[in-house]
Amino acid sequence: MTVKNINKKGIFYVKVQVALLLVFMLVFASMLTACGTKNTNENTTASLESATLILPDGAPLLSIASLAEGGNINSSGIFQVGDAISKELGTKLGIQVVQDADTLIASIKKEQPELAVVPINLAAKLYNENSAENQYKLLGVSTWGLNEVVANFDISSLKDLVGKKLYSFAKAGTPGVAIRALLKKEGIEYVDFKDVVSNSAVNIVDFTTAPDIVAELSKNLDEPHIALLPQPVASAFALKTQGKYSVKLDLQKLISQAFDGLKYPQAGLIARADIADNANYSNFLNKLVAHIEKTTPSLKENPEHVAKNVKENFKSSALAATEAVVDAIKKGSLDVEFTPVTSKNDVKKDVKAFLQIIYDSGASALIGGKIPDDKFFVLDKG
């Protein structure tokens, strides 16, 4: 064989190898493109098969009363929303009820649920302190100011608390923050009670939960005491003591008077950012919000049915005193009117104003160090 023939044969082999390489590259590129197209289509048609909502026992449960119809509690203690509502939402929704703020925070951090109802300051903190993929954003306010000052002797103003002990709860939550901010705004000194009562200040004695306060007060109903309690706990305690204790001051009204008509947002419904920011899940969130909004007229028209339904379906211990719940609703002191964030209402303004009050009071750590930006509000159209 001549050198010339060998060179021709070598060149031919090289050409074949190059051709095969090009074919392989084209096939591989096509596969990548096909995969990309497939994923895009899947994302476009994605739906949320299931979701979990975590919230504390008590008034927040009333704000989602419309979800209680037809559901049941499974073996894991999770309330499974009924088939009719799940079909309407397009998602199987489970509701987990926890007993206190500490458990609520721990559950959110551990389980990263799709949805939760939390104190407004905690909602801001979860947004500000977490990385983008772990953030939570606000869908709406679930409960408005529910806290009232009760006592077994006459009180007519905040100044009457000076020189006395005030039992309070959730120091790092909305109630504890609100009472301190209000006292500061009114120029009334307060101290965290240690051993000796200050005659020139309100002496705040902090408890973990409202039931802890009730247990302490119940030890001696005749001894003079003042306490900050949420509804319907305040009404239930008044009924239990047969009127020895009664509501003396409405914190919501006092805050509104002190802070230019502010409607005090206490707890809100939040969604995990990857749910809130995904257009594929907007339909689910919109339907959920619309369904929860149905609770408000039901509470006004038939509070007895709603209170009983929530107590029995969610197995609520905090709402066990149905008579007290109904009494608080009828008196207008139990404001659980869920209000979504939209450009047509003042929810965004009220939330920001309340968070600003917390920030200005020197408790910025309770909201994550800053006022959340507008991306914190999910359904705002403005």
Percent helix range? 40-55%
Mind telling me which CATH architecture of the largest domain this is?
3-Layer(aba) Sandwich
Label the overall shape: globular
The CATH topology annotation of the largest domain reads as D-Maltodextrin-Binding Protein, domain 2
The DSSP helix count reads 15
Supply the CATH superfamily name of the largest domain. Periplasmic binding protein-like II
Order of helices and strands: HEHEEHEHEHEEEHEEHEHEHEHHHHHEH
| Contiguous runs where pLDDT drops below 50 for at least 5 residues | 3-9, 18-45
Assembly of the depicted chains: single chain
- Give the count of structural domains: 2
CATH class of the largest domain: Alpha Beta
Total number of beta strands: 14
Radius of gyration: 28 Å
Describe this structure in words.
With 382 residues, the protein is α/β, with parallel strands linked by helices. The chain has two domains: 50-145 and 264-376, Periplasmic binding protein-like II (D-Maltodextrin-Binding Protein, domain 2), CATH 3.40.190; 147-258, D-Maltodextrin-Binding Protein, domain 2, CATH 3.40.190.10. Helices cover 45% and strands 19% of the residues. The protein has 15 helices and 14 strands. It has helices spanning 3-44, 59-63, 83-89, 101-111, 120-129, 174-185, 210-217, 233-240, 251-258, 273-276, 282-293, 295-301, 303-314, 322-331, 347-360; strands at residues 50-56, 72-73, 79-80, 92-98, 115-119, 136-144, 147-151, 165-169, 190-192, 202-207, 226-230, 246-250, 265-272, 339-340. Strands 2-3-4-1-5-13-6-14 form an eight-stranded mixed sheet, with helices on both faces. A six-stranded mixed sheet has the order 9-10-8-11-7-12, with helices on both faces. A hairpin with a 5-residue loop joins strand 2 (72-73) and strand 3. It is globular and about 60 Å long. The relative contact order is 0.16.
